[in-house]
Design goal:
Largest sheet: 5 strands, antiparallel
Mean pLDDT: 80
Helix content: 25-40%
Number of domains: 1
Low-confidence stretches: 1-26
Radius of gyration: 18 Å
Number of helices: 2
Strand content: 35-45%
Order of helices and strands: HHEEEEEEEEEE
Length: 137
């Protein structure tokens, strides 16, 4: 019984340490994050926000700290999404899981932060409006 209690304490401490590490790095952008975001948006002009984007057209996604999500579309447009209140625990080492049976990713939709390697979810957030950034005309 004593061995079991000791193992449980060690496992709990490890889980809490992992969660703390995620929240420390996930809620603020690093200099590298900012540089990459600047590259994604370079030469692009922001447009009027839209409520939804087609999920099937997303080519790649990048998370900037726990506050900004960038979606690069097949047509070259980059959408910037800033969830109100941020997205706790989100960083480039994790995944953002949504359930969208309509094929659209929409503002107000709940997105779950997932760490598939460790098997836990450090948080969730509601998506904000999608601001398109297009090549200048």
């Amino acid at each position: 019984m004593r061995k079991f209690m000791g193992l449980a304490v060690v496992a709990l401490a490890g889980a809490l340490a992992g969660t703390a590490a995620v929240s420390q790095t996930g809620d603020r952008a690093t200099a590298r994050d900012i540089q990459l975001m600047d590259r994604w948006l370079a030469g692009r002009t922001p447009g009027n926000p839209v409520s939804c984007i087609p999920h099937t057209q997303i080519r790649s996604t990048y998370y900037v700290g726990g506050r900004t999500i960038l979606y690069r579309m097949r047509n070259g447009t980059v959408y910037r999404n800033e969830p109100p209140g941020g997205c706790p625990g989100l960083n480039s080492n994790l995944a953002l899981e949504t359930r969208n049976p309509t094929g659209l990713l929409c503002s107000g939709e709940i997105a779950f932060v997932r760490d598939y390697a460790q098997g836990f979810s450090p948080g969730s957030c509601a998506l904000g409006a999608f601001v398109p950034f297009r090549k200048g005309s």
